[in-house]
Amino acid sequence: MEADAFFSKRYRNQNPKKAPSPVQGHPYAQKVLASACRKIRTASDGQRHKTRLDQARLVGGYVGAGHLQEGEVEFHLLEAALGNTDDPKGAKQTILDGLKHGIASPLSPPQKPQSDNSQQAVVNRSQTPNSESELYLFSEDGTARWKETHNGRILIPVANFTAQIVEELEFDDGEESSLHYKIQGELRGHSLPEVQVPARQFDSLCFVAEKYGSQAQISPPSTNREYLRHAIQVNSGEVARTKMFTHTGLRVVDGKNVYLTSTGALDQEEIKVQLDGGQNLKLQRYSLPLKSSPSEIKAGIEASLNFLKAAHSKVSIPLWLAPFDAVLMSLLEEPFASLFILGPSGSHKTTLAVLAQCHLGNFSTNNLHSFNDTANSLEKAAFILKDAPMLVNDKVHFTPPKTNLKFIISFSDFCGTLFFSFSSADLITDCGCITNSAKADQFS
Q: Of 268, 263, 297, 266, nearest to 278 (Cα)?
């Protein structure tokens, strides 16, 4: 039976009598599941995979802690995913992967005192909070804090929305690490935009106005900002931390050499990579399959060797060596000389350089780095790519600014990045083994 037909039959057209009964478990965890299903159903094209993975992982945390039943959760998540996909098999696998990772990192719902949810509810004085998690009430009305009075405890409004940190993201750029919080919120039963906030900026709560808009309101006085900051942390419970590498190239992780690409680490699927926020299409092209079968490896080697036949050996061999030598030179902590191809217009210089780049991903002659880019943007891209060769193309036949040329050449001396470039004189940085320092003198 075809996979699509199987999944469609199992999850889309089930007899309602055979569907699981309403989800059993902790009320808070039930709300998390309902919210996850809603986000999965409404995820836009391009965000579906990420939404499925993130939400399944979040709900899986409550399954791992015993607050939800795995079978029921799997059914509802799959039902939501298969109602919003063109690839049922892939959607199912993403949900199961997310659940698996979430179950391995159990999450506990925040403990909340019983109340009638009113903003000024007076309760028995004996109900004194015995832990931090009982200092606040989180409901559809928003976030409120308990205050002791002579007449008992009352609820004081803090904000008209609720928010929680669902994941800590540790970004590692190869030089230093920075911590970000992934925050989800709700306002009057509707999901607020998911945001990533640098940990050092979290205390200011500036993201509330910047990302949530004017409808999300923090109640006066100003001291409520401190209460809200604390309430968000309390509402978050135990938060899983994910380490995210933000560069490509060779890296030592847990004592082992791994190669990072935009999709992750080769043969290490648990390692996560995100280049420049995942929005830079030029960097996203540095994408290699994380797993390859023996037959795929053989075919890849044959295709690589066939590249040597694409041009004269004086041109093809240096180009073919470039992707491999860049990595080897980084191990030796030595700069790798820029390569140049010289030739008249129409001699397929760009095509050859792009074909060489295809050792590292899916490249084409469109949307390449060029001398039209600013020096800062080129420096940033080179820093992210580390020892992965970087193709810089001047296909518009103009005289590049000397500052850009000197920057590119000098920067490659210490970043280990290999630069390919094409100048107005039909000069391509790629295949002539002219050293960076020597070339730099020509532009001084």
A: 263
Domain count, the chain: 2
- Label the pairing between strands 195-198 and 190-191: unpaired
Please state, in angstroms and as integers, the Cα–Cα distance from residue 320 to each residue in 30, 160, 340, 369, following that order: 55, 60, 13, 20
Least confident of 93-107, 239-253, 407-421: 407-421
* Residue 64: domain span: 3-103
The arithmetic mean of pLDDT across residues 106-112, rounded, is 65
Q: Which of 103, 130, 145 is the last residue of a domain?
A: 103
Domain assignment present for residue 429? The answer is: yes
Query: Is residue 388 within 8 Å of residue 252, measured between CB atoms?
Result: no
Residue 170: enclosing H or E segment and its boundaries?
A: strand 162-172
Distance CA 334, CA 322 (A): 14
Whether 303 is covered by a domain: the verdict is: yes
Does any domain span residue 257?
no
Q: Which residue has the higher pLDDT, 118 or 217?
A: 217
Q: Which of 1, 82, 67 is nearest to 37 (CA)?
A: 82
Domain boundary among 103, 120, 137: 103
Kindly report the number of other CB atoms within 10 A of residue 320's CB atom. Answer: 20
Closest CA to 337 of 420, 407, 424: 420
| Residue 163, domain member (yes or no) | no
**In which residue are the tokens 């590249």 written?**
307
Q: What's the Rg (C-alpha) of the chain?
A: 27
Please give the helix or strand (H or E) that residue 306 lies within, else none: helix 294-306
% of the chain at pLDDT higher than 70: 74
